[in-house]
Structures are given as structure tokens and as C-alpha cells.
Design brief:
- This protein has 131 residues and is an alpha+beta fold.
- It folds into two domains: 1-61, no CATH class; 63-102, no CATH class.
- It has one helix at 108-130; strands at residues 14-15, 21-22, 40-41, 47-48, 78-80, 86-88, 91-93, 99-101.
- It has a two-stranded antiparallel sheet. Strands 3-4 form a two-stranded antiparallel ribbon.
- A hairpin with a 5-residue loop joins strand 5 and strand 6 (86-88).
- The longest helix is centred in the C-terminal third of the chain and has 23 residues, at 108-130.
- It starts with 13 loop residues before the first strand and ends with a helix.
- The relative contact order is 0.07.
- The mean pLDDT is 68.
Length: 131
């Protein structure tokens, strides 16, 4: 049995003759789900949670992936790169409900690189002009 998020459902509780229930290892809910500890208050005001659980209701936060860069569970646009790889692009929702790809800003490193290139060119030009 698979859940909608792709994880496997564990064996559901089976009633035993003595009235108790037999469950798969680590399963402690009747529907065969593992109960992940919801936030347990610690003295410093933060919550202690089971491994991999980072939402207060004890569920796992969905991991960000190519189709879902922010981990929200909503598929966003996937850009195919010239070398065949795929990368996620953030999408902006417009007022009319349509979605457009957000313009990516040039990173500081890129600007620095192009500036350095320009300076190099200029010095080269000047040198040739001087001779």
C-alpha cells in the first residue's frame, strides 16, 4: 500500500486472539502509520522532534527536489539545460493565475567576472595604442 506522498504504508494492525493488536515493527497506529512524535516542548521553548520530522504536527517536511525546489509539495517549472540536465526554476504567480518563470539575477561572481574581463580588454587596447 502506498500513500499519496509515495511512502509505503506499513502493515495495518491485525487483531490477535487475546484482543490486542499485532503490528509491524515500529508501527504504533491502527492505520499502519508510524506516529512521529509531534513537537514536545523543551524547557528552552523549542520543540524536540523525532528524526526527520520538522513540522509541529509530527509529519515530515517534503524534501526539495528538481520539481519542487522549495519543498512545498507544488511542482514548479523545470528547465532543460543545453547539456541535457534539468534544473528547477522558481515560478512567479501572476494576478490572473498564470505562472511565469522568475527572472534570475546575475550572481555577484558573474558580474565580477565580466567586469574583470572588460578591464583586461581595456588594458590590452591601451597597451597596443601606446606602442
Amino acid at each position: 500500500m502506498n500513500r499519496s506522498d509515495g511512502t509505503k504504508k506499513r502493515a495495518v494492525a491485525i487483531d490477535k486472539a487475546d484482543g490486542t493488536q499485532k503490528r509491524a515493527a515500529g508501527v504504533n497506529q491502527a492505520d499502519g502509520d508510524k506516529y512521529r512524535a509531534a513537537g514536545v516542548r523543551k524547557s528552552d521553548g523549542t520543540t524536540k522532534r523525532a528524526a526527520g520530522v520538522n513540522k509541529a504536527d509530527g509529519t515530515k517536511k517534503r524534501v526539495a527536489s528538481v520539481n519542487n525546489p522549495d519543498g512545498s509539495g507544488r511542482t514548479v517549472a523545470v528547465k532543460k539545460n543545453p547539456n541535457g540536465s534539468r534544473s528547477a526554476v522558481s515560478v512567479k504567480k501572476n494576478s490572473d493565475g498564470s505562472r511565469t518563470v522568475k527572472k534570475s539575477r546575475k550572481s555577484a561572481k558573474q558580474t565580477k567576472r565580466s567586469k574583470a574581463k572588460k578591464t583586461k580588454k581595456k588594458t590590452k587596447k591601451n597597451k597596443s595604442r601606446r606602442n
